[in-house]
UniProtKB/TrEMBL annotation:
The lineage of its organism: Eukaryota, Fungi, Fungi incertae sedis, Mucoromycota, Glomeromycotina. Signal peptide: none annotated. This is Protein kinase domain-containing protein. GO terms for molecular function: ATP binding; protein kinase activity. InterPro entries: Kinase-like_dom_sf (IPR011009), Prot_kinase_dom (IPR000719). It comes from Rhizophagus irregularis (strain DAOM 181602 / DAOM 197198 / MUCL 43194). Residues 1-63 form the Protein kinase domain.
Amino acid sequence: MDYANNGNLGGNLTRIIKSDRNQNLYMLYEIISGLNDIHNQDLIHCDFHDGNILNHGNKIHSE
């Protein structure tokens, strides 16, 4: 897994709130897509919280 050079969702909430709506919707889509990928592999994310949603560059990853 790559280093999350922009931290996690919880640590970036104030910056994210100031982002435009399209960027916020894109981040939400990426989070949902990541969880869907996990579930499609018949896995469950047992510790899902804002500290586990990682921000790498302009992308958000659910880990």
